[in-house]
């Protein structure tokens, strides 16, 4: 699956940006609060406007403090998947249950330096594991290949049936890096600059899919 990240699009034309990637599997929306990460993007009112402008399932990536308080609002608004950071969630099991009760898939994300193993038990309550392949906060950064081992470890647990999550990767994914990530066992690839930096975002998605399948 390919999830274009709207962070790399023109924020004055978000509806057009959503419509230019009709073939996307998920539309990835980065919510940053200026505290959990040193950058500030958009919040619930703008995410609601995006939800109203597209039929693509919206994948909200919340890079915020206190997701226990804020995340459910995104699920109630109609996001398909709502991902919170393991480093920020106070009660991740309750949070996952609340997200699911509000009709969304629940995602848990780990920064490049955070292993997922301490969270394996509570990942049984989650649908998505988002492995960050850059330090969260900004688009256009370089892919960190050292996270691929974490992806392989997660893949093994999924394949053995111990975990049931979609393995998603986020940061620095482009036509070169997507092959390594696919080989390591990623199911869903977030791509910001590689999609919205291209002249034709729709074709960029196709090209990424081709490379991931090789
Ligand atoms: C970074 C965000 C990413 C970002 C990816 O903190 O979570 O989703 O938009 O952008 P690229 O693909 O340009 O690295
Ligand atoms: Zn993201």
TrEMBL record:
GO biological process, one term: pentose-phosphate shunt
Keyword rRNA processing appears in the UniProt entry: no
Active site: 30 (proton acceptor), 170 (proton donor)
Cofactor(s) essential for the protein: Co(2+); Fe(2+); a divalent metal cation; Zn(2+)
Reaction(s) catalysed by this chain's protein: D-ribulose 5-phosphate = D-xylulose 5-phosphate
This protein's pathway: Carbohydrate degradation
Annotated keywords: Carbohydrate metabolism, Cobalt, Isomerase, Manganese, Metal-binding, Zinc
Recorded GO CC terms: cytoplasm
Alphabetical list of CDD domains matching this protein: RPE
E.C. number: 5.1.3.1
Database matches in InterPro entries: Aldolase_TIM, Ribul_P_3_epim, Ribul_P_3_epim-like, RibuloseP-bd_barrel
Positions bound to a divalent metal cation: 28, 30, 61, 170
Functional description taken from the UniProt entry: Catalyzes the reversible epimerization of D-ribulose 5-phosphate to D-xylulose 5-phosphate.
NCBIfam families reported in the protein's UniProt record: PRK05581.1-4, rpe
Family, as annotated: Belongs to the ribulose-phosphate 3-epimerase family.
Name of the protein described by the UniProt record: Ribulose-phosphate 3-epimerase
Species of provenance: Actinophytocola oryzae
Lineage: Bacteria, Bacillati, Actinomycetota, Actinomycetes, Pseudonocardiales
């Amino acid at each position: 699956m390919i999830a274009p990240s709207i962070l790399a699009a023109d924020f004055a034309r978000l509806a057009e940006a959503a419509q230019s990637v009709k073939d996307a599997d998920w539309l990835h929306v980065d919510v940053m609060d200026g505290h959990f990460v040193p950058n500030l993007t958009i919040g619930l009112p703008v995410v609601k406007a995006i939800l109203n402008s597209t039929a693509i399932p919206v994948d909200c990536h919340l890079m915020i403090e206190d997701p226990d308080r804020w995340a459910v609002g995104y699920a109630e608004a109609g996001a398909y998947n709502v991902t919170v950071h393991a480093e920020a969630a106070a009660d991740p099991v309750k949070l996952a249950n609340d997200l699911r009760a509000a009709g969304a898939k629940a995602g848990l994300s780990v920064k490049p330096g955070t292993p997922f193993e301490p969270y394996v038990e509570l990942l049984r309550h989650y649908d998505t594991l988002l492995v960050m392949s850059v330090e969260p906060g900004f688009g256009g950064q370089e892919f960190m290949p050292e996270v691929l081992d974490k992806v392989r470890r997660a893949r093994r647990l999924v394949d053995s049936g111990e975990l049931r999550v979609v393995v998603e990767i986020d940061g620095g994914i482009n036509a070169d890096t997507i092959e390594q990530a696919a080989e390591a066992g990623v199911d869903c690839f977030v791509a910001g600059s590689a999609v919205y930096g291209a002249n034709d975002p729709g074709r960029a998605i196709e090209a990424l899919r081709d490379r991931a399948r090789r």
